[in-house]
TrEMBL record:
Pfam families for this protein: CP_ATPgrasp_2
Gene3D superfamilies tied to this protein: 3.30.1490.270, 3.40.50.11290
Protein name: Circularly permuted type 2 ATP-grasp protein
Circularly permuted ATP-grasp type domain segment(s): 78-457
Source superkingdom: Bacteria
Source species: Xylophilus rhododendri
Native organism taxonomy: Bacteria, Pseudomonadati, Pseudomonadota, Betaproteobacteria, Burkholderiales
InterPro entries according to UniProt: ATP-dep_Glu-Cys_Ligase-2, CP_ATPgrasp_2, UCP005522
Stretches of the chain forming a coiled coil according to its record: none
């Protein structure tokens, strides 16, 4: 299988084979004593622990049997992307997220894309994430996914050059942006000299852009909207991020019990009495938002919230029902969405996708399980997934039975050789596979900070970068021209 490394033109690295945009960094790295870099790694870990940048791992237990929180491992070697590559990626991201928001508005209103036969009706209307309660609801600016995390991978083409692909669209409650921001702060603290040698585009203004996006999403005629971050609470795996973003934006972090609905308006309990809330940046899944509409036993949401939302008196970011657009089966239709709604050809490619629901493609999947990556349509976080080349015969046969029992619950894709980047591991510096999650904000306009969260699979040969599966993170540098 062909390989593509972000830093080196050849693997293993050979003299003179450093890519142009890494040459300054490579010269700097060659001058660093190993013990200095080791101390910097240890210093980063101490600081991250002190700040409380942890990730709760569900189901994992410490030796005493209690639940565990872990640091997401941070790697000192940045992922560097030249300006011209980022510019094209940014155009592709704006195009894609624009089309996805058009799709969401359409499926909850006129359903033109279904009537045109572009997407089968059952894939939308019978989708577990489709919310009939949202039919006919008009949301400000027709924006449903205000904050999107689009997962991008790079893989070698036939000539061995790196080609970017969108692997997944995360449109519900995408997480990870706090690690992007903290990774940059850490690199600037540990290696300030590197930022005088490189023109690295800044990311620190993300909270300002996020607040601007939230305020732009407020109900009409709300000149000074009150925004809050709604968290499930301190036991959620991403609670650090919820608190971090609220603090960075200067808005309140609230739980469901801090809010109530009266006369179809949402109010926040404060020491000075109730205060009206206009925009809720929710980090709570649809099913838990309103016990009067969804799960009646949920204590995480707010009774009456959906009615206030339908009345147009509060904005919810991201909107209820966005999950129907980031389903792994719907993903295969995003290029057609771009053509249907925008009349354009996709700038960023999809990974070729085989649908278990189609008999011919199902046969291909079953005949080639050992070579494919198979995913549950509603799976997330690296769970519910088979990486054929890395699986045992028994694991493949278990998946075969699961696919046969519910063919429309699975898709399959070729096993891409994800690009690698030099990474500190126990044995020293070695290539490890990576992906990239840029965060795309849709308010008055579609915008983003240059870069995103680079996730790295720390196990040798692993293609699974998810934090829940032991992945780490890197700072992402977009070089300015």
């Amino acid at each position: 299988m062909r390989k593509f490394d972000e830093m080196y033109a050849t693997l293993p690295p050979e003299p003179g084979q450093v890519r142009d945009h890494y040459k300054t960094y490579d010269r700097w790295l060659a001058q660093q004593p190993p013990d200095t870099m080791l101390r910097r790694r240890e210093e980063a870990e101490v600081i991250f622990r002190r700040v409380g940048i942890t990730f709760a791992v569900y189901g994992a237990k410490d030796e005493d049997g209690s639940g565990t929180e872990r640091l997401i491992p941070f790697d000192l070697i940045p992922r560097i992307i030249p300006a011209h590559e980022w510019q094209r990626m940014e155009r592709g991201l704006v195009q894609r997220v624009t089309a996805l928001n058009r799709f969401l508005h359409d499926v909850y209103h006129d359903q033109e894309i279904i009537r045109a036969g572009v997407i089968p009706a059952d894939m939308v209307l019978q989708n577990a994430q489709f919310r009939p309660e949202m039919m006919g609801v008009d949301v400000p600016r027709h924006i449903y996914s205000h904050i999107a995390g689009i997962d991008i991978v790079r893989a070698p083409d036939a000539q061995g050059n790196g080609e970017y692909y969108v692997l997944e669209d995360n449109l519900r409650v995408p997480s990870g942006v706090s690690y992007m921001l903290e990774d940059r702060k850490m690199m600037m603290r540990l290696f300030p000299e590197l930022f005088s040698q490189h023109r690295v585009a800044p990311v620190a203004h993300y909270p300002d852009l996020l607040l601007e996006t939230l305020r732009a999403s407020a109900p009409p005629a709300t000149p000074d909207p009150t925004c809050v971050v709604l968290t499930p609470g301190m036991y959620n795996s991403a609670y650090f991020e919820h608190a971090f973003l609220a603090q960075q934006m200067g808005i309140e972090l609230v739980e469901g019990q801090d809010l109530f609905v009266k006369d179809d308006f949402v109010w926040m309990r404060t020491t000075r009495g109730p205060k009206r809330v206009d925009v809720i940046y929710r980090r709570v899944d649809d099913d838990f938002l309103d016990p009067l509409v969804f799960r009646p036993n949920s204590t995480l949401g707010v009774a009456g919230l959906v009615q206030a939302y339908r009345a147009g008196n509060v904005a919810i970011c991201n909107a209820i029902g966005t999950g129907v657009a980031d389903d792994k089966a719907i993903y295969a239709y995003v290029p057609k969405m771009i053509e249907f709604y925008l009349g354009e050809q996709p700038i960023l490619k999809n990974v070729p996708t085989h649908m278990g629901r189609n008999p011919d493609e199902l046969k291909y999947i079953l005949d080639n399980l050992k070579d494919l990556v198979v995913k549950e349509v509603h799976g997330a976080g690296g769970y519910g997934m088979l990486v054929g080349p890395a699986s045992t015969t028994a694991e493949i046969e278990d998946f075969r039975r699961a696919i046969l029992a519910k063919p429309d619950g699975y898709i399959a894709q070729p096993t891409l050789s994800l690009s690698s980047c030099p990474t500190y591991v126990e044995s020293g510096i070695a290539p490890r596979h990576i992906d990239l999650r840029p965060f795309v904000l849709s308010g008055k306009e579609v915008q983003m900070v240059p870069g995103g969260l680079t996730r790295v699979a720390l196990k040798e040969g692993s293609l699974v970068v998810n934090s829940s599966q032991g992945g780490g993170t890197k700072d992402t540098w977009i070089l300015e021209v």
